[in-house]
Amino acid sequence: MLAENTRLTFILYCFFIYFFVSSVVYYSFFFWNSICFNFYAFLKFLIWCFSFFYKYLLFLYFFAIRSFCIFF
Questions:
Q1: Rounded distance, CA 69 to CA 62, Å?
Q2: Would you say the pTM of this structure is higher than 0.70?
Q3: pLDDT grade for 30, boundaries at 50, 70 and 90
């Protein structure tokens, strides 16, 4: 049971890290090559990145608590 839970956690970590990195690369490429690039668009992009990262950390926190409570 512990090995299955650890494997699932690792797969979720990899999936969300891949999603975060790929979205950051995609949006940064889009903004840097945009003709109408401005500081406001870049600021909105940074806010989106931090909000996604915050939601990702919250998800990992609650998932870790749920996984931990299964054993006790």
A1: 11
A2: no
A3: low
Q: Look at the alpha carbons of 37, 38, 44, 47 in this order and tell me if their dihedral is positive or negative.
A: positive
Domain count, the chain: 1
* Owner of token pair 């945009």: 34
Residue 64, domain extent: 2-70
DSSP assignment of 5-53: HHHHHHHHHHHHHHHHHHHHHHHHHHHHT-TT--HHHHHHHHHHHHHHH
User: For 25, phi and psi rounded to 5 degrees?
Assistant: -65, -45
d(CA 13, CA 15): 6
CA distance 11 to 23: 18
Degrees to nearest 5, angle at CA 53 with 68 and 47: 155
